[in-house]
Amino acid sequence: MLGLKVIAISRTFMTKILDYSQKLKLWTDFCDDNGVLQKSVPLFSQQDMRVETQPYGLDHRLILKRSEEMEALVIEQAEEVINDYKHEMQIYDGLIYMMYWLDQGIIQPLYIGKAEKIGRKGGLSINIANIRHNKSNFCRWGSNYQYHIGDLSAATIFGHNPKNVNRKYLQWAEKLFLDHPTFEPVLRQPTFFWMKAWPRRKIGIWKEYGITSLTFLEYLLIGVASDIFPTYLLNTEGVNRRSSEI
Predict the structure, then answer these.
(1) pTM to 2 decimal places
(2) Is the peptide bond before 181 cis (omega within 30 degrees of 0)?
(3) For 110, phi and psi rounded to 5 degrees?
(4) Model pLDDT, residue 17
């Protein structure tokens, strides 16, 4: 409970006391320092703005196809964390990632999340393990239901059982695509993806705070982003109540 209170107090300081220009500078400095723009890739495999689909699972349901570049980035960054775990180097906490749009050079976040190195049972997280072949979990961007691509596909593409259509991902589908459900999903805007293996001794978005854990970083990024980009951010947890109601 104490840790949650520290997070809440720290985020309140950052998002309430700082003015808009200061918050935007925090955001752009973080993106610049971590090469977000330079190291990003298209999220989906697409022709023009139409996202390609592919059959998946025993029922051959259609799902949205991740781009080859996106899969390569996830594998590259996840294997940094896997090697860290195997060799007990204790360098990384896990992975931080972002789905975003770009407007006049400004990164407008749509979703911010993390995949931790250690799973609930104490070993390497199933979301990261065997990353080259584990496309069902795939650092939270897996093809299974209860993962981003699987659930977004259920909300976007015809043919999924209604019980697997999640309200959260209906909001994602509404934000990302011109129409849903459909057999030919078309993006509203080019949609990008960034992921980074987060070192446990790295400074985050709030430089004055110092070394920032992955969990704290995620909370801070969501808190700042929800103030600066309230009409873009699709996160529901960790979002400032005022901003989420705009």
Answers:
(1) 0.91
(2) yes
(3) -100, -35
(4) 66
232-241 long-range contacts, CB within 8 A, separation 24+: 232/101, 232/108, 232/109, 232/110, 232/175, 233/109, 233/110, 233/111, 233/112, 234/110, 234/111, 234/168, 234/171, 234/172, 234/175, 235/111, 235/112, 235/113, 236/168, 238/11, 240/15
| Residue ranges, the chain, pLDDT below 50 | 1-3, 5, 9, 241-246
Distance CA 127, CA 188 (A): 29
Q: What CA–CA distance (Å, rounded) separates 49 from 19?
A: 36
CB 193 within 8 A of CB 44: no
Q: In this structure, are residues 37 and 31 in contact, taking their beta carbons and an 8 Å threshold?
A: yes
User: First and final CA of the chain: distance in angstroms?
Assistant: 29
Integer angstrom CA distances of residue 7 from 12, 144, 220, 240: 8, 31, 8, 13
User: If you search the block for the tokens 């109601």, which residue do you land on?
Assistant: 245
